[in-house]
């Protein structure tokens, strides 16, 4: 099978003759040094091989995957590639595999040494190698997706702080943590016990598949291939079910399962709304395209033009309504946690509506600049600085109005949050009408 030109180019750049010779020589020297200075040569070489594979694939490979598109943008060759005849699936693998080919070249050799030399560990060498591979694919695909989003936002020249922060998050809370867990310990999910290493491996493999598919869909957007957001909605539903499974205890009835699902839905849809809102391209042009399609009755084309954040926002609205209907009323339960959770979904959704309107207010400006920074600044003022100053000055009522308390009056919290959302929506509507009048004059 003939390789596409972009993948062939990346392989030529990554796998030079010098690199192909240097990598096995350097690895052999490292393993020889470890073996010579150890009392248990096989075990020491196996541990060193595992660490080398993890560093090559999880650090170097992730960095290269995150920078593969950003480097093209810096070199001003990305637009040319987007106009080429390469399809989104071929472009996805060209960037994801081609940019990390040398890291995998060394990583696979280290994994082969690990499998050959590992003693009888509690966690088998094959399981360790599989975790490294699955976790690395997940981190690399996610880093490439983050780099693509950064390029779309015009952040190619502003450094890779966000990318490295993403890597740190995956190292701390990702499936790779399963490497440090005892094989005999269990992990409870949807009321059943699983070995933690098995569950971590399965989770990493599953999320890696989602990350690759998400990268493919993002590449479709970059290459102007029409898609609808059903994959994103499916991923949100999967994530809701995945997280809810940790809250379901063995023998749980229907009602506790419903509680877990609606609470997971509120948390996941809210988080994905903010994540997509700040990572996607959102502005008047995008909104006008969707509006035109809706006016013409072209529903599928409207979905193709629609960003993913409105889908998450609509799912958040449904989740909040479902939570308000499903969760027990304060008068019907003695559990303080459930009493607070009953009051939370609607006010939280209204505050999220306010936040979305604030972001769009800046995004719909005639010449939008630093939209994300401006939105973060004002949200920080509304959530932290202003309420803190009001509380310090003794203005308790004003502080509670800025951040409505859920207890003791849920109705009051909903009313105050509705005022916030209404004011922000009115400002957004004014901005939209002002922009429209400007277009008419032009």
Low-pLDDT ranges: 172-181
- The number of distinct β-strands equals 2
What is the string of SSEs from the N terminus onward?
HHHHHHHHEEHHHHHHHHHHH
Sequence of strands across the biggest β-sheet:
1-2
Number of domains: 2
- Tell me the β content: under 5%
Distance from N terminus to C terminus (CA atoms, Å) equals 54 Å
**Mean pLDDT, as a whole number?**
85
Helix content: over 70%
Instruction: Give the C-alpha Rg.
Output: 25 Å
Q: In terms of structural class, how would the helical and strand content be classed?
A: mainly alpha
Characterize the biggest β-sheet. Answer: 2 strands, antiparallel
Shape: globular
Number of helices: 19
Task: Walk me through this protein's architecture.
Strands 1-2 form a two-stranded antiparallel ribbon. It has two domains: 225 residues, no CATH class; 87 residues, no CATH class. α11 packs antiparallel against α14 and α17 packs antiparallel against α18. It is mostly helical. The longest helix is centred in the first third of the chain and has 34 residues.
Describe how the helices and strands are arranged:
Blueprint: H1 5-14, H2 17-36, H3 41-74, H4 78-82, H5 88-98, H6 101-117, H7 125-152, H8 161-173, E1 186-189, E2 192-195, H9 196-222, H10 230-244, H11 254-279, H12 284-295, H13 299-305, H14 309-326, H15 336-343, H16 345-363, H17 371-392, H18 396-402, H19 410-441
Antiparallel strand pairs: 1-2
Helix pairs in contact: 1-5, 2-3, 2-6, 3-6, 3-7, 5-9, 7-8, 7-9, 10-11, 11-14, 11-16, 12-13, 14-16, 16-17, 16-19, 17-18
């Amino acid at each position: 099978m003939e390789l596409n030109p972009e993948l062939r180019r990346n392989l030529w750049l990554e796998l030079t003759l010098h690199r192909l010779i240097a990598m096995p020589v350097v690895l052999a020297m490292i393993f020889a040094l470890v073996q010579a200075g150890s009392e248990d040569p096989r075990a020491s070489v196996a541990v060193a091989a595992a660490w080398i594979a993890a560093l090559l694939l999880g650090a170097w490979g992730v960095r290269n995957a995150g920078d593969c598109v950003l480097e093209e943008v810096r070199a001003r060759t990305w637009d040319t590639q987007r106009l080429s005849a390469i399809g989104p699936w071929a472009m996805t693998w060209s960037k994801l595999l081609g940019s990390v080919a040398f890291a995998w070249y060394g990583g696979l050799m280290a994994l082969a040494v690990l499998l050959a030399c590992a003693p009888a560990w509690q966690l088998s060498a094959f399981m360790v190698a599989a975790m490294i591979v699955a976790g690395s694919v997940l981190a690399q695909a996610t880093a490439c997706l983050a780099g693509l989003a950064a390029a779309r936002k015009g952040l190619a020249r502003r450094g890779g702080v966000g990318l490295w922060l993403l890597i740190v998050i995956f190292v701390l809370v990702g499936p790779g943590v399963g490497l440090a867990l005892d094989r005999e310990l269990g992990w409870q999910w949807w009321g059943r016990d699983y070995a933690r290493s098995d569950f971590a491996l399965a989770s990493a493999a599953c999320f890696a598949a989602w990350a690759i598919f998400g990268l493919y869909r993002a590449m479709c957007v970059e290459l102007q291939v029409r898609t609808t957001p059903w994959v994103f909605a499916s991923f949100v539903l999967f994530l809701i079910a995945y997280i809810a499974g940790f809250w379901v205890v063995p023998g749980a009835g229907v009602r506790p399962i419903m509680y877990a699902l609606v609470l997971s839905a509120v948390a996941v849809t809210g988080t994905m709304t903010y994540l997509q809102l700040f990572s996607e391209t959102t502005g008047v042009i995008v909104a006008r395209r969707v509006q035109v399609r809706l006016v013409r009755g072209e529903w599928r084309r409207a979905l193709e033009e629609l960003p993913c954040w409105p889908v998450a926002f609509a799912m958040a609205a449904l989740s909040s309504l479902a939570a308000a209907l499903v969760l027990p009323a304060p008068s019907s339960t003695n559990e303080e946690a459930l009493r607070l959770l009953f009051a939370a979904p609607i006010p939280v959704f209204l505050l999220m509506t306010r936040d979305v309107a604030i972001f769009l207010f800046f995004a719909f400006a005639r010449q939008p600049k630093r939209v994300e920074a401006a939105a973060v600044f004002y949200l920080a003022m509304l959530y932290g600085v202003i309420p803190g100053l009001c509380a310090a000055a003794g203005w308790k009522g004003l502080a509670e109005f800025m951040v409505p308390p859920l207890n003791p009056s849920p109705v009051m919290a909903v009313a105050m949050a509705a005022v916030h959302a209404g004011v922000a929506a009115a400002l957004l509507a004014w901005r939209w009408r002002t922009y429209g009048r400007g277009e008419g004059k032009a």
